[in-house]
Amino acid sequence: MSRVAYVDGQYLPHRSAAVHIDDRGYQFADGVYEVMAVVGGSLLDEGPHLIRLAKSLAELQIPAPMTNAALRVVMREAIRRNGVRDGIVYLQVTRGVAARDHAFPKAARPMLVVTSRRRSPADPRAVDNRVAIITIPGIRWQRCDIKSVALLPNVLRKQRAKEAGAFEAWQVDREGKVGEGTSTNAWIVTLDGTVVTRQADSAILNGVTRLAVLDIIRREGYAFVERPFSVAEAKSAREAFLTSTVVDLLPVVRIDGAAVGSGEPRPLSRKLRECHLAPAASKK
Ligand code: PMP
Fold first, then answer.
1. Which protein residue has the closest C-alpha to ligand 1 atom 5?
2. pTM of the predicted model as reported, rounded to 2 decimal places
């Protein structure tokens, strides 16, 4: 089955799907995006993703390209046409095509692109996929709460992680506190069993997986606090993990080359991942 992309009202062969070179996403990174997981044919956490999309669009004063009801139809159609049962949906909205000028163009119409691709189903119990991370000074702007397509600092930091043989780079602010990864939120479990993640201010993206995991933590009655934590605190934590739509929840077992915690098992990371993925997986 060859892939299909939705571009501005049309379903096109993915191979040749394109937007105009004057699209403001291409010229200025003037746009926003979302990535949603498809688990067993259903979109995971679809509602919160659409809420965050609306927030990102509103922050940039880009009109919604269509109603949420219409968007839900387009996403399902993209999933269907690409034969996706387990995979992801990528959705991007830019301010549209206009002659190049920094200020908002009067006439532009938002440009919507939706793609979907398959990937292997996420195994709720597969926390054997543990990862190493590095910590690195952040070089991003001050509105990281907007899910903007302007990802160059994240790209550069992720490349540094890769070159260091690590999966992710935790970006550290001037006060020495961890913000988040380049495409994931950052968490630790302190020695007394308290889960800690940075509060969702403008320094981080409020991950949909982050919100879902916080819900599980509240429901299960674990101790938690939303506050910044330092690199030293992370290195001496009992457990550390990261979350995102694409990886769900992965234990972090090395930070800057040093082992985290006392080794296996990582009971809380395991439990939270299972709780988040198991309801979706059981729908299969
Ligand atoms: N932080 C950043 C910078 C990200 O790019 C992402 C993934 N989009 C996340 C956190 C995790 O967000 P989510 O759980 O919504 O995928």
1. 183
2. 0.95
Question: Within 10 A of 254 (CB to CB), how many other CB atoms are there?
Answer: 18
In this predicted structure, what is the pLDDT of residue 128? 62
Q: Are 32 and 56 in contact (CB under 8 A)?
A: yes
| 107 Cα–ligand 1 center, Å | 31
Active-site annotation holds for 147 = yes
Sorted by sequence, the CB contacts under 8 Å of residue 208 that are 6+ apart come out as: 45, 48, 49, 52, 245
Q: Tell me how far apart the alpha carbons of residues 55 and 205 are, in angstroms, rounded to a whole number.
A: 12
pLDDT tens-place string over residues 144-156: 999 999 999 999 9
Which CATH fold topology does 124-281 show?
D-amino Acid Aminotransferase; Chain A, domain 2 (3.20.10)
Rounded CA separation 93/114 (Å): 9
Rounded to a whole number, what is the distance in angstroms from the first to the last CA of the chain?
22
283 CA to middle of ligand 1, Å? Answer: 25
For residues 111 and 255, give the distance between their C-alpha atoms in angstroms, rounded to a whole number.
Answer: 40
Beta-carbon contacts of residue 265 (< 8 Å; ≥ 6 apart): none
Q: What CATH number matches the domain at 4-118, 3.80.30.20, 3.40.710.10, 3.30.470.10, 3.30.1540.10?
A: 3.30.470.10
